[in-house]
Amino acid sequence: METTYYEYGTAAERWDRARLFFDAKEYVTAARILTGLVDEVPEQVAPRLLLARAYYHSARLAKAETELRAVLERDPVEHYARLMLGRTLERQGRAAEAAPHLRMAAALTGEFTP
């Protein structure tokens, strides 16, 4: 894939640029920038979580699921990743698999009702 101007610069500049594209609902472009950031700093959760969100919003659900599972490996109590994984699984027609993630997300935010 051809490298474009928005993939250049420091990690901080690319992070800002990716967020701008994400906020502008240019999810494919945001994902392209974020993929490079995630490759550079795989231990950081924030770029990977935003990448998962970009994949989710651009209906690349398998990729979103992969990134969300990677986030949860690094931070098992990241409630938003847990919620997004549940929603991603639901969108793929996997409601039974989604339910435990959605319950855990609710519990982590204090919204859990038995």
Provide structural commentary.
The structure is a single chain. Helices cover 71% and strands 0% of the residues. It is an all-alpha fold and 114 residues long.
The helix count comes to 6
Radius of gyration: 15 Å
Secondary-structure element series? HHHHHH
Q: N-to-C terminal Cα separation, in Å? A: 49 Å
Give the helix/strand class: mainly alpha
Task: Choose one word for the global shape.
Answer: elongated
Mean pLDDT: 92
Question: Helicity, in percent?
Answer: over 70%
Number of strands: 0
Describe what is shown at a glance:
The protein is an all-alpha fold and 114 residues long. The protein has helices at 11-23, 27-40, 45-57, 61-74, 79-91, 95-108.
Label this structure with key terms:
114 residues, mainly alpha, 71% helix, elongated
Task: Explain the layout of strands and helices.
Elements lengths: L10 H13 L3 H14 L4 H13 L3 H14 L4 H13 L3 H14 L6
Helix pairs in contact: 1-2, 2-3, 3-4, 4-5, 5-6
